[in-house]
Amino acid sequence: MCSPLSVAVGKSVQGACGILKRGHSLPGLVIEKLDKGFLSSALSQLPLGTMIICGTNGKTTTARLISQALREMGLKVATNDSGANFTRGIISSLLPLMSISGKLPCDIGVFELDEAWAPVFCQQFPPSYALILNCSRDQLDRYGERDSVESMLGQVASCATKGLVLNGEGERVKSFSSLAKGAKVSFYDFDPALAPLFPRDENLVCMRQSFSPKAPDSQAQVLLKGISGSEATFEVKGSEFTVEMGVEGSFNFLNAAAAIAGILSVCDCCPEIGGKGRYRAVDLSPKAIVEAVSKVRPAFGRGEEFRIGGAQVKMVLVKNPVGFSSALRAIPLQGKDVMVALNDESPDGRDVSWIYDVDYSNLSKVKEVTGERAFDMALCLEYNGKEVRRADLNIEKALGGFLEGPREKVIFTSYTSMLSLRKLLLDLDKSKGKNLYAAD
Question: Looking at domain 4-294, which CATH architecture does it have?
Answer without folding.
Answer: 3-Layer(aba) Sandwich (3.40)
